[in-house]
Structure formats: structure tokens, C-alpha cells
Amino acid sequence: MGDLRGLTDAELARTIERLRNPIPGGKVEAAVEFGVDVTLLMEQIKLSPGERARRMHELARTAESVRGAARKR
User: Fold this and answer.
1) Which of 22, 36, 52, 59 is least surrounded by CB atoms within 10 angstroms?
2) Is the pLDDT assigned to residue 46 strictly greater than 60?
3) How far is the CA of 40 from the CAs of 1, 20, 29, 35, 44, in angstroms?
4) At what angle do helices 38-45 and 9-20 cross, to 10 degrees?
5) Which sign, positive or negative, has the C-alpha torsion 15, 20, 23, 29?
6) Measured between alpha carbons, how far is 63 from 30 in angstroms, rounded to an integer?
7) Separation between Cα atoms, residue 44 and residue 66, nearest integer Å
8) Pick the residue with more confidence: 6 or 15?
9) Residue ranges per structural domain of the chain
10) How far is CA 19 from the centre of its chain?
11) Under a CB-based contact definition with an 8 Å cutoff, are residues 31 and 38 in contact?
12) Tens of pLDDT along 58-69?
């Protein structure tokens, strides 16, 4: 899999541009037409892999605590 790293500034700019202005007939355009909110993708790719993992872990912990509270009711 190789080393995980964040995108360089140039890679990030190019990726965001592709999400904002998808290639006609491409998969990103199809996703947008299907209803995918690409602004959420843009926010996630601005983070480093470690930051994304920490956020995902925190979300999982929050979901587990909410689920536990719901069970007690």
C-alpha cells in the first residue's frame, strides 16, 4: 500500500478543481447527478490521512455511545 501521506498543494488544488468541474460524462459528474455531495469529499481530502482516521474514530466512538444510551432507554 505504501506510505500514507496528505496531498501536496498542487494535487489538492487539481483534485478540488476536478470535483468542482467534473469531466462531462465522467464518474464524478455521474456521482453529482446521483446526489453525492462532493463538498464533503473536498473537506475530507484537505485533511491528512491521520486526521481523517482520528475523525472517523471519534465519530465511531460517538455513535457507539449514542447506541449505548438508546439501549438503556
Assistant:
1) 59
2) yes
3) 25, 12, 15, 12, 6
4) 180
5) positive
6) 30
7) 24
8) 15
9) 9-72
10) 12
11) yes
12) 999 999 998 877
